[in-house]
Write a structure and sequence with these properties.
- The chain has about 350 residues and is α/β, with parallel strands linked by helices.
- The chain has two domains: about 1-115 and about 300-345, ATPase, nucleotide binding domain (Nucleotidyltransferase, domain 5), CATH 3.30.420.40; about 130-295, Nucleotidyltransferase, domain 5 (2-Layer Sandwich).
- Helices cover about 40% and strands about 20% of the residues.
- It contains eleven helices and ten strands.
- The strands form two sheets. It has a five-stranded mixed sheet with strand order 3-2-1-4-5, sandwiched between helices.
- Strand 1 (about 1-5) and strand 2 (about 10-20) form a beta hairpin.
- The longest helix is centred in the last third of the chain and has 30 residues, at about 230-260.
- It is globular.
- It starts with a strand and ends with a helix.
């Protein structure tokens, strides 16, 4: 089976073509970063309008790169949620329109399932079952992934996600949007031990997170800077924040591996591209005899290739949408079920 996939949950427009025998044949992406930079964050209505302009040309580009015509396709997958409802509707409407014109089935994919399955695109994919640390601008979750579609939520953030803490702190430090990558680069020049921020919720049992207090700690540190403070002083704050977030994520992930008895850890989502986090997780996992898996950097952030992986598994199992357009701003991950073919062969 060969499918087309669309992603439009937030501020990236993307299309991809995936073949169950030949793998990923094409992926095309347009980021709206420049559009939203002037506002310091994503403006939902502007995002929706831009998807309307970008998605169809990206579809044409992906099909051309994959040397694929509509008659070669077995279905279309698209992000149905969670996300910005207007942005989701643009992708859903386009997917259903193309499917109707081409006589193809469609499947609405859970955006977070796409992130969870993105490492399956790599030459050495993770085995099931495994532990997944999903860490992004909107989510920080520890999940036991027993099989495709079979997920057990172990813990999540009570307030801000880790990526949100990075982005908001970056704004306090005067860094441009999107702040997370800029903060990571600034932190590389910071000195260790100049500031000491809390490691939230590490002093109590459980696998939940809380990062809102770190944002407050950064605010106080910025206000305490002298009038002649320079970039080096801001770099010290950035490093202290990054170390606090990374320490917390690593400690909770190792705790989850111990509690579940699993020896494989998947790290996905935009913050999963943070190099300090990757280094620390690999080192900690090695000490436990565990192994870390993650998608290549370009598939950590939102993309259509990951939607294609999840969609292909479900379309190949015979799942498809009913009539109408599917889009859900909120969609709990634990409501998903395995596709029939995967469920029948689950370990």
């Amino acid at each position: 089976m060969r499918i087309l996939a669309l992603e439009s949950s937030c501020d990236e427009s993307a299309a991809a073509v995936l073949d169950d025998q030949r793998g990923l044949l094409a992926h095309a992406l347009f980021s709206q970063v420049d559009l939203h930079r002037a506002y310091g964050g994503v403006v939902p209505e502007l995002a929706s309008r831009d998807h309307v302009q970008r998605l169809l040309p990206l579809v044409h580009s992906a099909l051309a790169e994959a040397d694929t015509t509509p008659s070669d396709l077995g279905g279309i997958a698209y992000t149905a949620g969670p996300g910005l409802i207007g942005a989701l509707l643009t992708g859903s409407a386009l997917a259903r329109s193309l499917a109707t014109a081409w006589g193809l089935p469609t499947i609405g994919v859970h955006h977070l399932e796409g992130h969870l399955l993105a490492p399956l695109l790599e030459p050495d994919p993770p085995p099931f079952p495994h532990l997944a640390l999903l860490v992004s601008g909107g989510h920080t979750m520890l999940i036991e992934a027993r099989a495709i579609g079979d997920y057990r939520l172990l813990g999540e953030t009570r307030d801000d996600a880790a990526g949100e803490a990075f982005d908001k702190s970056a704004k306090l430090l005067g860094l441009p949007y999107p702040g997370g990558p800029h903060l990571a680069r600034l932190a590389e020049r910071g000195r260790a031990g100049v500031h000491e921020f809390p490691r939230p919720m590490l002093d109590r049992p459980g696998l939940e997170f809380s990062f809102s207090g770190l944002k407050t700690a950064v605010l106080h540190a910025v206000r305490a800077l002298p009038a002649d403070a320079g970039e080096a002083d801001r770099a010290d704050i950035a490093r202290a924040l990054e170390e606090a977030v990374v320490d917390t994520l690593v400690a909770k992930a190792m705790r989850a591996l111990e509690e579940t008895g699993l020896d494989a850890l998947v790290v996905s989502g935009g913050v999963g591209a943070n190099l300090r986090l990757r280094e620390r997780l690999h080192a900690a996992a090695r000490r436990r005899g565990a192994r870390v898996y993650h998608p290549r950097l370009e598939f950590c952030t939102d993309n259509a290739a990951m939607i294609a992986v999840a969609g292909l598994a479900r379309l190949a199992a015979g799942e498809h949408d009913g009539p109408g357009i599917r889009a859900r701003a909120r969609w709990p991950l634990d409501t998903l079920r395995p596709p029939a073919a995967v469920r029948d062969h689950a370990p």
